[in-house]
Structures are given as C-alpha cells and as structure tokens.
Amino acid sequence: MTVPSFAPAAPWSGNWLQVSARHRIWVEQAGNPAGKPVVLLHGGPGGGSSEALRALHDPARYRIITFDQRGCGRSTPFADLTDNTTWDLVADMEVLRAHLCIDRWQVVGGSWGSTLALAYAVTHPERVSELILRGIFLGTQDEVQWFYQSGASMIWPEEFARFIAPIPAAERGDLVAAYHRRLFGADPADQSRCAQSWSRWEGAALSLRPDPARVAEFEAPESATALARIECHYFQNGCFFDHDGWLLGQTDALRDIPGRIIHGRYDMVTPLRSAYLLAQAWPEAHLTIVPDAGHAGAEPGIAAAMTSATQDFAGLPP
C-alpha cells in the first residue's frame, strides 16, 4: 500500500491564548476549519511546535491544531518553570479545547508528546476521539536512566563522552541531578554550556542514521535553553506523576479510545520496551514496530506509519 504524504498546511490562524495569570501559549490552526479536529503535541518537554508536525494529516480532512507548551517556542514567559508541570499542560489542553469550541478531538503525540497525550487521555477520556502515539515515553526512572545515565551511552559512546564532559567525575553517578544544579545555577556561562551539551546529546541519538543538521538545530543556544531546562526540570521531578510507573497503571481509562502505537525498533532515546508494555496494558490499541527506524518522527518508516494511522481515522466521526 502506498501511503500518501502531505505538504505541511499553512496556518490560517495564529494567536496567543492566556492560560494562567503568568503563562500564555502560542496556538496555530491549519487545514480545513470544518474538518475533523486533531491536536498535535510536540516533544521535549520544551521542544516547541514545527510545521513538520502538520505533514502527517490530510489538510482537506482535518482541522489541525498545534500549540507551544508552557515556556517553549513562542509561548511566554520563555523557558519559565513556574507553574510548569505535566498537570498544568493537561489543564492548558482543556482550556484550549473549550476555547476552540471542540467537543472531542484526536490527540497525536510523539516522545514527550506521547506522555502528555496519555496523561490527558486518562484524565479526560471522554474528550479523545482517537490516540496516535509514537516513540513512547512513560515518564519512568528506568527510561530516564537509560538515556541520561547508562544504556544509550553504550551505543553512542563518543557522543555520550561529549554529554558528560561538563560534569566533574565525582558527580557523574547522577547526571540528571548534576545537570540540574548547573542549568539552574548562578553562572550564566555554565548554564548555556550545559544546555547546549544536554540538547546536543538528544539531537545526536535521535535517529537511526546521524543527522548533523538536526544536531546543530538542537544545540542552537536559544532552543537548547528551553529544551534542557524544561526537560531536566521534569525528569528531576519524575514528570510530576504520583509515583514511578503511575502512567502505565492508568490504562483502564483508555479502553474505549481507538489507538495506534508506533515505535522504531532501534529507538535509542525511548527504547521499544515502553511501547511494548503500553500495548500489553492497552490491548485494544494496535502496535506497529518500524524495523528500520530510531526515535525521530521524520524517519520514513515512522512518518509512513503515522500517516497511515491518520488516514485510517480520518473518516471516523469526531
């Protein structure tokens, strides 16, 4: 079967939405204003939206909604961590849905976006028409340890050596904590250096094949600041879940939601085990393992599987 691809639809609406006394989020809409509503959740946390997110949905059939989560992209205040938790973001999605007068919407997320999508869906299942998730991250300590301590380090040793370089040897037993001290320390130069190092590591390991352009994009100072600070803030706080493994224990709430789970076999950022465990706990969802892909949503096999899912769901009522 040939899976169509779509040019990213140009936004027909872009505005800030005030979601709290402190925070406003940047929201864009594209595609068909009368189409099936879908909200696209970017990764990170702290990554920000991009037009590439819109390339997986048929703009003739979907009303495509993107927003920059608190503290990143064009949302303000930039890189701000006050009142910036998973549950603040879930609440923002409800504010946005009500503001747009949408009863139910398809929720799509990759990487951290899959975490947020699941947190939203188990909290507001009646508002979700379908879930499409890729690069599953369940917000557990095992996953954080794999990528930021020991695991991916054995596959990308040369890049991991660059990641740990700013941290003294005596502090390398807990790299997330060591980075947290520096990203939120008093030395602006140290903050910037560590933000770029943290973000470069993620960009380097993202796809099956190295992509130097992506690495350069990730370590650009401004984007690195939001990504590193917000990610480290969330991971240091267990993604603000009640306990480690909490999210996987909530899957009974997903039983009536049609779902697709898509994951690259060679994902070094969020290993396949997370997607497998989610599929075991949520057997109503269909798991697609892409045999020649890593973590990046732009990899051909991942993009094809995601587009196939959006096409399959396009004809369902909102």
Give descriptors for this structure:
318 residues, 2 domains, 8-stranded mixed β-sheet
**Span of the ends, CA to CA:** 26 Å
Number of strands: 8
Mean pLDDT: 96
H/E series: EEEEHEHEHHHHHHEHEH
Instruction: Report on the biggest sheet.
Output: 8 strands, mixed
CATH architecture of the largest domain: 3-Layer(aba) Sandwich
Apparent shape: globular
CATH class of the largest domain: Alpha Beta
> Which consecutive residue ranges, at least 5 long each, have pLDDT under 50?
none
Strand order of the largest sheet: 1-2-4-3-5-6-7-8
Q: How many separate helices?
A: 10
Radius of gyration: 18 Å
Fourth-level CATH superfamily of the largest domain: Alpha/Beta hydrolase fold, catalytic domain
Walk me through the structure.
It contains 10 helices and 8 strands. Strands 1-2-4-3-5-6-7-8 form an 8-stranded mixed beta sheet, sandwiched between helices. With 318 residues, it is α/β, with parallel strands linked by helices. Helices cover 37% and strands 16% of the residues. The mean pLDDT is 96. The longest helix has 18 residues, at 188-205. The protein has 2 domains: 11-141 and 240-314, Alpha/Beta hydrolase fold, catalytic domain (Rossmann fold); 142-239, no CATH class. The chain has helices spanning 86-99, 112-123, 141-148, 157-164, 175-183, 188-205, 212-218, 221-236, 272-281, 300-314, and strands at 11-18, 24-31, 36-41, 62-67, 105-110, 128-134, 259-264, 286-290. Strand 1 (11-18) and strand 2 (24-31) form a beta hairpin. The two termini are 26 Å apart.
Write the layout of secondary structure elements.
Blueprint: E1 11-18, E2 24-31, E3 36-41, E4 62-67, H1 86-99, E5 105-110, H2 112-123, E6 128-134, H3 141-148, H4 157-164, H5 175-183, H6 188-205, H7 212-218, H8 221-236, E7 259-264, H9 272-281, E8 286-290, H10 300-314
Parallel strand pairs: 3-4, 3-5, 5-6, 6-7, 7-8
Antiparallel strand pairs: 1-2, 2-4
